[in-house]
Write a structure and sequence with these properties.
The chain has eight helices and 39 strands. The chain has 687 residues and is mainly beta. The strands form ten sheets. A five-stranded mixed sheet has the order 1-32-33-34-35. The longest helix has 7 residues. The chain starts with 12 loop residues before the first strand and ends with a strand.
Length: 687
């Protein structure tokens, strides 16, 4: 398991984990929290824990000083990288990247009310994105991106890429992420890193950035100091037999910006990629394609979202990484920000390719292999046109935008919230979801992704077709049945309990064409896909609906829990094999009724998967702690981070784990000395 979401396709499926793929009630009887890999660094001043939000990686048969071993490699928000011997649980090595990159005394950066490019509820940020391991060189190399600052609380934030020999933790190369237009303090490397291989002996590395929870305020509250954009850095990696063992060369046209460069005032026209269209306070008149943002001046703070059109377009994808196909074509999707064309009129809606697009918010982008002359320039795209969101939202939008890209941006319902997932058949397709709960299936590779066309006809009108976007978040039934039950036009809805049941995760089993979804505030649903050489589509009704298995439920279905509204939904990983066996492992935030409402802690669930998508509950950590002596008794789910399935075990990164039974969100109220951070290992007892 060398990359986030298991592969460059980002399917969240491990096709080689045969032990967990065949999980059954017999195995469940002796399965539980078997070990805990504790992190050992000293957290920043004032904190007693060292959260991990990057997915751990698993490498087999690594030659170490103690012989060949299977390693688990994990990075923390405290800028440490650790390697553990999975046969013994022993920590083999660690590296402090903050002090390596920013000097003695350097730390991660602090999340403060006035400086918050990160996600909610995490106090500091170092290694956020899932690293990636390359096995092309003789000695496997892990690539890790981290942030550091000279002292805790400083806003002098820098981002660095490091190449680490996983045999012993030696740092072989360091590259600062920088550019004349790059404003690192208001960016966040959140998406998993991507390695693509244009040939069997070459490696290219992609790093995506966007802002986080502070994105709206970054648009206007502090002008040019806070402006941000989506950024994609690309490097060709060179391997050498002598020092320096690793070198980085920027790919042509790198970095790519989705909108303005970040060191310009967001309220003035961009100059780095051309002028922003002249309309900046209202939508375009008539039937022209979108050329500017909407700023609803009669509602406080809405203008933050409107002005955000002039920057934004962050590439975060709920921590999922850019995806790649076997041909090394790269796919990414952006969140809220301007989608706009170089001209008005019909040229954008009839655009024959990417040359007609000037601003890349709310869109999917295709980048050619690094063998192309300008690999960091999009060659194709898709942006949603049809107003699915306003049509189905309840109650109706009193002031809808003319185009889906505008409406999604105006109320912060990011396109690309799930990240791009490749459907790896002979004819390649890709899919993505947005926060309003819609799935978009696109042709890929040599075929057009779908462009920006009336009624999204680019998806259904070509020689290779897919289907009209459809809603995949809708259960349980009852008060939240309608798509996005928003009762206000203000973006403030995103901080209330009436928000959408957002989709942040797509798990896909290619062999059986099964799509798994676990949105916020909902239970798991399964959709059946259908493939031919010229088309791909999913059934628009779930092949498996947990509510229907227990009646037309309005709450939580037995054994198929509903993720909590103040969580990020259920995150999933699939263990599957070539014989058609499979198990879904879901990390589901659950609220402990015995403790305050802010106490959201994680349960790990296992479900066997029938070939038709039917799920059967077989084990969960809430009732199946069968191992008698784990060193931790409580633990917490992480934002967007799925478990790592390998070697018959599920490795779950913890924001923190406690040893005294008291569980409070992010350990904020746990007594000193009762906190441990690290990786929980669920496996066969005694293993």
């Amino acid at each position: 398991m060398l990359a986030g979401q298991y592969s460059r396709s980002r399917t969240s499926a491990n096709p080689s984990e045969t032990t967990l793929a065949n999980f059954d009630s017999t195995m469940a009887a002796s399965f539980g929290l078997a070990a805990f890999y504790a992190f050992t660094s000293t957290p920043p001043t004032g904190f007693s824990y060292e959260p991990v939000v990057a997915q751990p990686l698993y490498a087999t048969n690594v030659l170490t000083s103690g012989g060949r071993k299977n390693l688990l490699v994990a990075g923390s928000l405290n800028d440490y990288v650790y390697a553990y011997d999975t046969s013994t649980g022993a920590q083999l090595w660690f590296q402090n990247l903050a002090q390596h990159d920013c000097g003695s005394g350097a730390t991660p950066f602090e999340n403060t009310p006035t400086h918050n490019p990160g996600g909610a509820n995490l106090d500091y940020y170092g290694i956020v994105a899932t690293p990636v391991i390359d096995v092309v060189p003789a000695d496997a190399v892990a690539f890790v991106v981290s942030a550091c600052t000279p002292s805790f609380g400083s806003t002098q934030i820098s981002w660095y890429l490091n190449a680490i020999n996983i045999q012993n933790g030696a740092i072989w190369a360091t590259q600062q992420l920088t550019d004349g237009n790059f404003n690192g303090p208001y960016q966040l490397v959140r998406a998993s890193l991507l390695l693509s291989h244009p040939t069997s002996t070459t490696s290219d590395l992609y790093i995506a950035l966007g802002a986080g929870a502070g994105e709206l305020k970054a648009a206007t509250s502090c002008g040019s100091n806070c402006a941000y954009t989506g950024v994609l850095f690309g490097y060709s990696v060179g391997y050498h037999g002598t020092m320096p063992y690793v070198t980085f060369s920027a790919l042509s046209s790198s970095p790519f910006y989705t909108t303005c460069a970040t060191n310009v005032n967001p309220l003035t026209p961009c100059t780095t990629t051309g002028l922003f269209p002249s309309v900046s306070t209202s939508f375009s008149a008539g039937t022209d394609p979108p050329t500017g943002p909407n700023c609803v001046t009669n509602v406080s703070e809405v203008c933050d979202g409107g002005d955000n059109w002039l920057n934004g377009g962050g590439i975060w994808m709920s921590s999922k990484g850019p995806a790649s196909t076997a041909s090394a074509t790269v796919y990414v999707s952006s969140g809220n920000g301007a989608f706009a064309c170089t001209t008005s009129g019909t040229s954008c809606t009839a655009a024959s390719g990417a040359s007609g697009v000037q601003y890349w918010g709310e869109s999917a982008m295709k980048f050619p292999s690094a063998t192309a002359s300008n690999p960091m320039t999009p060659v194709d795209f898709f942006a949603p046109y049809h107003q699915s969101y306003t049509t189905n939202k309840s109650p109706g939008d009193s002031n809808p935008a003319l185009y889906e890209t505008e409406e999604l941006s105006r109320v912060d319902l990011d396109f690309g919230s799930s990240g791009m997932v490749i459907i790896p058949h002979t004819t390649t397709f890709a899919m993505d979801a947005d926060k309003s709960g819609y799935l978009y299936v696109m042709p890929a590779e040599a075929n057009s992704l779908g462009l920006f066309q009336s009624g999204d006809s680019g998806l259904t009108g070509g020689t290779v077709t897919t289907q009209t976007p459809f809603q995949i978040s809708r259960y349980p039934r009852g008060t939240n049945q309608g798509a996005c039950p928003i009762n206000t036009d203000s973006p403030d809805w995103i901080y209330t309990t009436t928000s959408c049941d957002e989709v942040h995760e797509l798990a896909f089993w290619p062999a059986n064409d099964l799509l798994f979804v676990w949105p916020i505030n909902e239970s798991v649903e399964v959709f059946q896909g259908s493939y031919s050489s010229t088309s791909y589509s999913f059934g628009t009704s779930p092949a498996f609906d947990p509510c229907l298995t227990s009646g037309n439920c309005t709450g939580e279905a037995p054994l198929f829990p509903r993720s909590q509204p103040n969580s990020e939904g259920g995150v999933m990983a699939l263990a599957v094999d070539s014989e058609g066996d499979g198990t879904l492992w879901g990390l589901v935030p659950r609220q402990n009724a015995a403790t305050p409402a802010s106490d959201v802690w994680g349960w790990l669930y296992a479900y066997t998967i029938a070939t038709d998508g039917t799920l059967t509950h077989v084990w969960d950590s809430g009732t199946g702690h069968n191992c008698s002596s784990p060193p931790a008794t409580g633990w917490f789910t992480t934002s967007f981070t799925e478990p790592t399935l390998a070697n018959g075990a599920a490795y779950v990164p913890s924001v923190c784990a406690v040893t005294d039974g008291n569980q409070y969100q992010y350990c904020g109220a746990v007594p000193p000395g009762a906190v441990a951070s690290g990786i929980l290992v669920f496996g066969t007892c005694g293993s």
